[in-house]
Amino acid sequence: MSGVRVLVGTRKGAFVLRSDGKRKHWDVSGPFFGGWEMYHVKGSPVDPNRIYAAQSTGWFGQLIQRSNDGGETWEPVGNQFNYDGVTGTHQWYDGTPHPWEFARVWHLEPSLTDPDKVLAGVEDAALFQTTNGGESWSELSGLREQKSGSSWQPGAGGMCLHSIIVSPQDPDRIYVAISAAGAFRTDDGGKTWRPINKGLHSEGIPDGDAEVGHCVHHITMHPSRPDTLFMQKHWDVMRTDNAGDSWFEISGNLPTDFGFVIDVHAHEPDTVYVVPIKSDSEHYPLDGKLQVFRSRSGGNEWEPLTKGLPQSNCYVDVLRDAMSVDSLDSCGVYFGTTGGQVYASSDEGDSWDAIARDLPAVLSVEVQTLA
Amino acid sequence: MIRVVLPAHLKTLINVNREIELDVLGIATQRSIVDALETQYPVLLGTIRDPLTKKRRAFVRFFVCEEDISHEDPDAPLPEAVVAGKEPFFVIGAMAGG
Questions:
Q1: Which of the listed CATH numbers 3.10.20.30, 3.30.428.70, 3.40.50.1100, 3.40.50.2000 matches domain B2-93?
Q2: Mutate to test the interface with A, among B9, B15, B92 (most CBs of A within 10 A)
Q3: Tens-place pLDDT, residues A195-237
Q4: Chain A contact set for B59 (CB, 8 A)
Q5: Is-above-0.80 flag for pTM?
Q6: Burial class (CB within 10 angstroms; exposed 0-12, middle 13-18, buried 19+) of A330
Q7: Is the ipTM beyond the 0.90 threshold?
Q8: Which CATH class, in words, describes the domain spanning A33-308?
Q9: Do B94 and A59 touch (CB under 8 A)?
Q10: In principle, which of A23, A43, A115, A176 could form an S-S bond with A50, CB 3.0–4.6 Å?
Q11: Domains of chain A: which residue ranges?
């Protein structure tokens, strides 16, 4: 019988939510690693019982945990993320040079083909990989050493590499996104990279159309269309159909185009979800109404989805890695809030239920569809 | 036998909820105690000090006998009360709100 496992990372631990294919009743287990910030928890597409978790605090640093039994038990693996060679500097908030310093792992992206292989996006922005199940990590330093690296600057959350997408058709093609540098692509497995930000326009940087410097909040892709990416930028929802060579805006009729999450329906590559947030200083929904917006046309025309979501006095945020979809026949959509709710829809977003309501602030949500 | 008190986050990590006891080789110092901790509990590697430079993490402090010794020489001998197990060696997460 099919089932769903939802992996939730929060400010004070990780939680695993399980349901059968009906997605009506949920068992919640956790907290795992109570008191620790769990920036991301994600399972291997090849072996769903293999799950990786990024565990950190500002006090005691970074650990990586691995589970081989679907999140029942965990073991710590390698936690040394050493930049390759001389790191140099990037821009600090005030524009002065600042040394590259490892802070934490933001995102773990298990390989589509090998459960022991994982990419890790870290702060200060860099890409690491393991090929031995997390026992050791090495940097793909071509990204950081890309000629624009010294001009990258942190966003409000730090200078984090938060999005990693490996093309299912070509494992040598990898997309990443960094706040606040922009999106980058490699076509040779990570040796060389180039910025892919043409068409982005940002206020708050000297040249609004610059090659780098854009605060990209999240990017996503449907596996059947590896050249089409959707982006939630600081402001603006964007789309590319040529692997990032150029982007165009698809914000259309959204009530505000600021936000963090963006995701694509599991079966409909033109159905896209976002959660509009009021502004870059007011990180909560407009008018206290939590609304997911869905476009069935690949952008521009958006419809609000509100059934089951609070429509008054709601002032939570939905962070960049806190939305995911399952791949059951009727696509399930899931997202977590800084208020500790995890909302789920088993009907493509038409209606929503809180499947967990009082967790610590949710940092990430990943969904595994189980056979 | 050296007694060591860890902060809650690190107790969670090593799955103990009590003071721990360590056999420390040679003279008891900040460095030799952390060496012994990392040997007995490898998961602590990197959580108290940088694994390469061995520099104490910025938000970690060491207290003994009601004194903050974080900024003293890491190879300085610790007080006899700690060596004798009368007083514990405290690893503290610096107070920073929350």
A1: 3.10.20.30
A2: B9
A3: 999 999 998 888 999 999 999 999 999 999 999 999 999 999 9
A4: 58-60
A5: yes
A6: middle
A7: no
A8: mainly beta
A9: yes
A10: A115
A11: 33-308
